Recover the amino acids of this structure.
């Protein structure tokens, strides 16, 4: 009989590809008492009540709702997204969370013989996808103030991907700069990951409208952050119909039904409750401004955020400015933020915008730690 320890089984049966992978590590979902969870950029508010109503209504007809396969192209949901942005149905793709949409994008557009350009500090899933799909990434340094200089991307490449606002910095790249990238790289797909764009409070922050003008642009968005539906798993991409067709071809060669019937109903209902969405986004923007100002007053160096989190460097007077130790001390009190033990950002904490009460609890805890 062959040996059966996990290591032996892995050595014998895993493909070399799987052995070489380093998976993405999501922010923890701790089970602490009295938890103040400011670590994964979830929305601090509940989703629109219409979401649950729509799901319950769909279930009322459960003989059909759950027995039948879902709409495999999610037509109604995609049409609502198209209407929202003044696009056509064939310019919209949806997937099981934007992470899945991003994975399809890497497969469809980035498997090229040139490296894909991405900011050195950015969403940590991109290097994981690159690894998974054997794509070379060229990481481009940020400026000293953590902003992106698009002139640094002026080189031959197999594509460009960046989060805007960037994660974990929260800094927004101006739409004019995105147009520069699109014009300079007409033979490469430029992907703008707008997971946090609904929290931007400047005009024309989103690149979605540019989809009508540039055939090499893909804009990715999600219901997870601004619509408070991280658990529903719905993400989307907007692009020229030919690029959408590529994504659809791939989807239908992998999993034809990525969005289940209940998720389609819930996501659609969320889009229909415009007033709720707008109000909640404005509330979070106001809470961000307040938290940024008060952290600054406590001596933090807070980067200018257009997202639902802030990236902030603690002052020397607070535990010698040691972000790792502050992270640990907060966690002991049930306040969980995000710390990245990585070059250039290990002096910073990423703090999700919470409710007014949560933000107050954080600020009080920091003030106590500084004493
Ligand atoms: C949260 C996040 C995503 C993933 O969102 P899902 O739709 O929940 O998969 C994608 N990109 C960035 C930059 C994010 O922060």
């Amino acid at each position: 009989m062959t040996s059966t320890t996990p290591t032996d089984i892995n050595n014998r049966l895993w493909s070399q590809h799987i052995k070489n992978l380093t998976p993405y590590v999501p922010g923890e979902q701790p089970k602490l008492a009295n938890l103040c969870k400011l670590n994964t950029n979830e929305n601090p508010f509940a989703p629109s009540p219409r979401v649950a109503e729509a799901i319950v209504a769909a279930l009322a007809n459960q003989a059909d709702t759950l027995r039948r396969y879902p709409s495999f192209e999610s037509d109604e949901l995609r049409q609502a997204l198209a209407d929202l942005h003044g696009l056509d149905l064939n310019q919209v793709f949806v997937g099981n969370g934007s992470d899945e949409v991003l994975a399809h994008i890497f497969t469809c557009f980035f498997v090229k013989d040139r490296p894909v350009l991405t900011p050195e500090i950015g969403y940590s899933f991109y290097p994981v996808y690159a690894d998974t799909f054997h794509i070379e990434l060229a990481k481009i340094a940020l400026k000293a103030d953590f902003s992106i200089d698009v002139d640094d991307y002026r080189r031959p490449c197999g594509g460009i991907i960046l989060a805007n606002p960037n994660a974990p910095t929260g800094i927004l790249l101006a739409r004019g700069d995105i147009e520069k990238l699109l014009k300079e790289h007409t033979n490469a797909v430029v992907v703008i990951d707008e997971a946090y764009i609904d929290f931007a409070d400047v005009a024309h922050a989103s690149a979605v409208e540019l989809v009508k003008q540039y055939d090499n642009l893909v804009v990715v968005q999600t219901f997870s952050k601004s619509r408070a539906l991280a658990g529903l798993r719905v993400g989307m991409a907007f692009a020229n119909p030919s690029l959408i067709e590529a994504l659809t071809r791939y989807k239908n060669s992998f999993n034809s039904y990525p969005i289940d019937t209940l998720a389609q109903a819930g996501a659609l209902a969320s889009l229909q409750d415009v007033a709720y969405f707008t109000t909640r986004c404005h509330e979070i923007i106001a809470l961000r401004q307040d938290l940024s100002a008060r952290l600054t007053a406590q001596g933090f160096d807070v980067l200018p955020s257009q997202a639902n989190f802030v990236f902030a460097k603690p002052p020397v007077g607070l535990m010698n400015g040691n972000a790792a130790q502050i992270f640990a001390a907060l966690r002991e009190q049930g306040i969980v933020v995000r710390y990245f033990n990585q070059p250039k950002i290990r002096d910073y904490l990423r703090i999700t915008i919470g409710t007014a009460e949560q933000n107050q609890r954080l600020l009080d805890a920091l003030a106590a730690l500084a004493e």
About this structure: The pocket of pyridoxal-5'-phosphate is lined by residues 97-99, 123, 163, 167, 193, 195, 222, 224-225, 230, 235 (CB under 6 Å). DSSP finds 13 helices and 13 strands in the chain. The longest strand covers residues 217-222.
